[in-house]
Specification:
By secondary structure, the chain is an alpha/beta fold. The chain has 11 helices and 7 strands. It has helices at about 15-25, 65-70, 95-105, 135-155, 170-180, 185-190, 205-210, 235, 250, 255-270, 290-295, and strands at about 1-5, 30-35, 50-55, 80-85, 110-115, 195, 245.
Length: about 300
């Protein structure tokens, strides 16, 4: 079985999940290659017996450019894929949406895997609800998933369609949240970013880290957020805090937002799907990540 796993990863957690799934596939006798999204050769996809696609969760759904990637794929009728994601707190519609868009390309999705991971954004507190994840227990689940997908692929390939799983149902609350956080709405509520030319050293880390090539520090004025998926990773990687934004408004929403997340995580813990590794009551909503980065780098 020739497998390709495609991943989009910024902080490295989705890549770790991809690596463990690969380890499980190879342990079960399959062949498996890893490739990051920006390096994938779309023309080669039809040559694989099984393809996996993984990403982090943004705004209760797959990142906007992941959906664009799927929608731009050629027809892949009869091909077998699996989807996976790393996420802080709530998976939302991510895997369901990816599967739905892949099915429009003729793909049959035969596996779903998700993993809790530490969250990172300028406007959230840290530690956050899922700090400490993924640990070895989480990562081992990825390897188990990889081992199990091999015999499932074999039997489905031989015609046993009863083994094709359905994605897990999503609470209506998170379906509505994902629908609300459209590309347009997020673009309107997220603070616009600017590059402070007096601080910018021209190192290029922000350009290199932008998944949609939306930054050019060499132009006058520097180009940023054109286009943008609102991941804010450029802010995180800038070593001199030259990428600036006003996060006070979105940060002020944290207490109410996190109250919803706590309910969801408590339910997941009761089902045995989540383990609390932090004390929620000790989260400091006044000390969000951008303030911490400022203290560290200035």
């Amino acid at each position: 079985m020739k497998t390709l796993i495609i991943y989009f990863s910024q902080t490295g957690y989705t890549k770790k999940a991809a690596e463990r799934i690969r380890d499980g596939i190879t342990a079960a006798g399959g062949q498996c290659e890893l490739v990051s999204l920006e390096k994938v050769n779309v023309k080669s996809l039809a040559g694989y017996d099984l393809v996996g696609l993984g990403c982090p969760v943004f705004y209760y759904q797959e990142p906007y450019h992941i959906r664009d990637f799927i929608d731009a794929l050629p027809e892949l009728k009869g091909k077998l894929w699996f989807v996976f994601a790393s996420h802080g707190s709530v998976l939302g519609i991510t895997l369901n949406s990816m599967a739905e868009h892949l099915k429009k390309k003729g793909v049959t999705v035969i596996g779903y895997f998700d993993m809790y991971a530490d969250a990172s954004a300028p406007f959230i507190p840290h530690p956050t609800t899922t700090t400490g994840h993924p640990d070895e227990i989480d990562l081992e689940r990825g390897k188990v998933f990889g081992r199990e997908i091999v015999p499932r692929w074999e039997r489905i390939s031989q015609g046993d369609l009863s083994l094709i799983p359905e994605p897990a149902p999503v609470d209506e609350e998170w379906v509505k949240s994902a629908e609300m956080f459209s590309r347009e709405l997020v673009g309107n509520i997220m603070p616009p970013l600017t590059i402070n030319k007096e601080l910018c050293t021209g190192c290029g880390q922000c350009e290199d880290s932008c998944p949609v090539q939306g930054i050019d520090v060499g132009t006058n004025p520097p180009r940023i957020q054109n286009p943008c998926i609102h991941c804010c990773f450029c802010v995180e990687v800038c070593p001199v805090m030259a990428i600036e934004g006003d996060y006070e408004m979105v940060a002020s929403m944290n207490p109410g937002h996190y109250a919803r997340l706590r309910v969801a995580l408590d339910k997941a813990a009761a089902r045995g799907e989540f383990r609390w590794l932090v004390d929620f009551d000790k989260l400091d909503f006044d000390d969000y990540m951008y303030k911490q980065w400022e203290k560290e780098r200035k």
